[in-house]
Write a structure and sequence with these properties.
Number of strands of chain B: 11
Radius of gyration of chain A: 14 Å
Oligomer: heterodimer
Shape of chain A: globular
Radius of gyration of chain B: 13 Å
Structural class of chain A: mainly beta
Number of strands of chain A: 12
């Protein structure tokens, strides 16, 4: 079945460090891919998305490119801030009539000043 | 554009009591989802509506959980009777038709069962 695999956390970085959170997927058809972020005590917010191969989603300095050849959607940011501390979820939107998000397990990021 | 609205934001109840959560999706969104998120875990889909019909409720514990979406707009999720393991965040989300369209989440209703 369709699935999403994320790198395990927690990830701890110093401010201004480079961030990569790996995400790979298994899916039939052509899913859309998403990164959601969850700040402490809050709900899920869409961070960025890509709907087809080679699309690059970007927002708030974060980027991810939909790589069909490697079935990956890795999240990157060149210089993280303390305010980026959160849990990041990679997800795919299953094709077909039953639109359902398939989730990774989440990666916790802590950025230290 | 207004987001997905949920209430109450926080609720503490004793086990065996009942609780109800309300969700108002983004205007025009046909699909509505209820998720359960236990602390430290990812969201788990409880039920998915398309307009006022149920598309998927395979993971809804139907002996204690129920949900409805009358008139295809607002939705209510009820738990009766609550168990300690129901302590979680209940997230409502909505989305439009079309594969590329995004699913948007509310702030969540945080339930503690004591």
């Amino acid at each position: 079945g369709d699935s999403v695999t994320q790198m395990e956390g927690p990830v701890t970085l110093s401010e201004e460090a480079f961030l990569t959170i790996n995400c790979t997927y298994t899916a039939t058809g052509y899913p859309s891919l998403f990164w959601y972020v969850q700040y402490p005590g809050e709900g899920l917010q869409l961070l960025l998305k890509a709907t087809k191969a080679d699309d690059k989603g970007s927002n708030k300095g974060f980027e991810a490119t939909y790589r069909k050849e490697t079935t990956s959607f890795h999240l990157e940011k060149g210089s993280v801030q303390v305010s980026d501390s959160a849990v990041y979820f990679c997800a795919l939107l299953k094709a077909g009539n039953n639109r359902k998000l398939i989730w990774g397990l989440g990666t916790s990021l802590a950025v230290n000043p | 554009e207004a987001g997905v609205a949920q209430s109450p934001r926080y609720k503490i109840i004793e086990k065996r009591q009942s609780v109800a959560f309300w969700c108002n999706p983004i205007s025009g969104h046909a699909t509505l989802y209820w998720y359960q998120q236990i602390l430290g875990q990812g969201p788990k889909l409880l039920i998915q509506f398309q307009n006022n019909g149920v598309v998927d409720d395979s993971q809804l514990p139907k002996d204690r959980f129920s949900a409805e979406r009358l008139k295809g707009v607002d939705s209510t999720l009820k738990i009766q009777p609550a168990k300690l393991e129901d302590s979680a965040v209940y997230l409502c989300a909505s989305g439009e038709q079309g594969l590329g369209n995004t699913i948007y989440f509310g702030e969540g209703s945080w339930l503690t069962v004591v």
